Amino acid sequence: MNPASASAFGIAITGMGAISAFGEGAEPLWRGLREGRSGIRPLRHARADKLRIRVAAQVPESFDPARHFDERTLSLLDRCSQFALVAANEAIAQSGLDFGAGGLALRTGVIVGTGVGGETTHDEQSRLIYEEHTGRVHPFTIVRLMVNAPASQISIAHGLHGPTFAVASACASANHALAQAAAMIRSGLVDVVVSGGTEACLGFGSLKAWEAMRVVADDTCRPFSRNRRGLVLAEGAAMFVLESMAHARARGATVLGELAGVGMSADAGDIAAPDPAGSARAMAQALADAGLAPEDIDYINAHGTGTQANDATETNAIHRVFGEHAASLVVSSTKSMHGHALGASGALELVAVLGAMRDGVVPPTANYDSADSACDLDYAPNAPRPMAVRAALSNSFAFGGLNAVLAIRAPG
Amino acid sequence: MTESISPDAVTSQVIAIIAKQAKLDEATIKPESTLKDLGIASLDAIEMIFDIEAHFDITIPYQGANFDTDTVQSLVDAVIKGLAAKAAGPGAVGPDAAA
Questions:
Q1: Got the DSSP string for A58-91?
Q2: What is the ipTM of this complex?
Q3: Fewest Cβ atoms nearer than 10 Å: which of A111, A246, A386, A388?
Q4: Which residues of A touch B62 (CB under 8 A)?
């Protein structure tokens, strides 16, 4: 497949929005990452004294849902749906699309990735039953906590009538959602999809479960650094407006980047430990799907969780796919700054890739302070790297052995 | 709590838990064996630590576990440390003080 013909199938990204540890908006997120600032802080939690988890990358307290939603709407929204709506509203506004015109609303879908959906609601209502023995829960519990709630709420808020559903693959949910969105546009099923990921996973029960798994760092997230101690949990959302390149060009839209190809695979092995063969297959597929050669890639936004297993395995997989070119490309993990927002991570990381392409600056891997022989690539340690990014990969690898990789081309 | 368990007793109890979990003969498990040597994958190791914590009623601090290099002895040491912290009484040492 030559690049020109592949490009005909490329998907234009014409809007983006986010909410993260850096606050509301894609721009504050990108500015933070570009400057190498960390959003990781001491955990804010009502039961912090009963938790061993000490740090997280949480949406700041300045986020006031009442400023975004009226009382009636708010009573229907779990925190993960609030995030999804805030990000989607920003992305849709930036795209300039008018869904009321020419029946576009009927040909616009909403595909949202989330790892666990309405965890805050689930946790709070369970507490009422098991701890307070109230014997009853809020009547909106089901419609708040269902995993499709964020997608449904976006469709309701914007009157979008196309295919709308959730995609769940733990930490790869956002990338799988974006890949599904791209496939639907390519197939001609829809013209536009609002897609991304959202997560608000910091309920007490959920934090206890992460503690028990012993993969959460107690200090900070140090991807690829020898002294890495695990991941740091985060929350947030990022959403994008995707449309066919032809559709975007016909309306004269500003294209932020091109989702040029996707690769997906399953390790079909261990439920938790990553397999470099599986991650390598997803990366190679994304390149082939985009009509890109390994040498075309300037930057990889790594999955880079900061666990011992992931970072060494991912490095191994990059070597397998890129051969000699692995030494020339730059790999960074922005999870060192925005944390690991599970099903939202791939979406937050796509904001980083589009920012890098626009500004010609690769965001660093923060907190990197000691070399590991098992992690021997150029990770842009601690300082942003000014460089042109013409094409990039963004990796997401999930528990369950599920891999989803996006190939992105700079607009041009 | 004043009852104290000798280090040898801790070692044999830890080995018994590992043997049961990994379905191994206790005689094949040495203090210097790494979990990798014993063929214990990461999730199984996490579950084993969970069982050890329950057995001794302690909390083993999270120290950035590396299942390729952690040995049976390092688990025994963590248990001894956990028992000492428990004996010192609640509040004397935070759960992660050793981390």
A1: PPPTT--HHHHS-HHHHTT--HHHHHHHHHHHHH
A2: 0.75
A3: A386
A4: 52, 211, 214, 216, 218, 229-230
The reply to whether B28 touches chain A by the CB within 8 Å rule is no
Please tell me which residue in A176, A247, A338, A340 is annotated as part of the active site. A340
Query: Look-up: residue for tokens 């020898």?
Result: A226
3-state secondary structure of A371: coil
Is B46 an 8 Å CB contact of chain A? yes
pLDDT digits (tens, 9 = 90+) for A236-294: 999 999 999 999 999 999 999 999 999 999 999 999 999 999 999 999 999 999 999 99
A171 is catalytic: yes
Chain A residues near any Cβ of chain B (below 8 Å)? 52, 54, 211-214, 216-218, 227-230, 270-273, 308-309
Q: Do B62 and A228 touch (CB under 8 A)?
A: no
* Overall average pLDDT of the A2-19 stretch: 74
Compute the distance between CA of residue A238 and CA of residue A94 in angstroms, rounded to an integer. 13
Residue B96, chain A, CB below 8 Å: the answer is: yes
Decide if A194 contacts A170 (C-beta within 8 A): no
Query: From the candidates A122, A158, A171, A338, which is the catalytic residue?
Result: A171
- Tell me which residue of A65, A17, A60, A16 sits closest to A37, measured CA to CA: A60
**Touching check for B69 and chain A: CB below 8 Å?**
no
The predicted model scores a pTM of: 0.93
Task: Tell me the pLDDT tens digit for each residue of A165-195.
Answer: 999 999 999 999 999 999 999 999 999 999 9
Quote the CA–CA distance of A200 and A202 in Å, as a whole number.
6
Give the residues across from A385 on adjacent strands.
Answer: A362
Count Cβ atoms below 10 Å from residue B88 Cβ, excluding itself: 11
